[in-house]
Amino acid sequence: MLKNYGDMKKDNYTDDEVEQLIVEADKRSYSGRLERLRILLSTQTQDTFPAPALALEYYEEARLCWYVGAFVATIIMTQLAFEELLRSHYRVVKGVGGNLDCGKKVDEAGFFDLINEARNEGWLLRNEAESLHALRKNLRNPYVHVKDIKVDSSGKIEIERPCFLMQNLKIVAPELIGSGAEDEAREAIRLLVNLFPEMSSHSGGF
Known about the structure:
about 210 residues, mainly alpha
């Protein structure tokens, strides 16, 4: 919201000036927030459901990030919400400090391990597990494990491979590459508001 104010040089602002900045920013971002709220309201399948406290906080923050237009944060918070939901479930099922069937401790297992554990136990259906792996691999990982640009043997840049340049273009100039962080965040939030309540209800909130 404040990225358009990079040319402001004042050190101190009155409360009235700050309030005016908020009003102006709200006017500029209103249509985007309205459309994003419509998506939230049209895709959410359950209004109330049991959920572990921390996982639910992540869930709410992911939805807030989407609403205000923080798209990369939406993706990351969506992944965190699912991961904590799975981990909380296994802290109860396996015990604090317990081990998953793969041999890893519950609190040391990664999102990959937790998804597979839930799939193997039948808590997740195959398509649900595949959706969570896609979230992990295709949406979240490129932002949190940013890679260098890769050049093939002929000297050509492999533009289809996620790298810092492509990730930046997704945020600042998505029109140059056909899609961007907003599109990925939309995919993530739709998965969150549909699958998270379903998973949480199946686990009884733990």
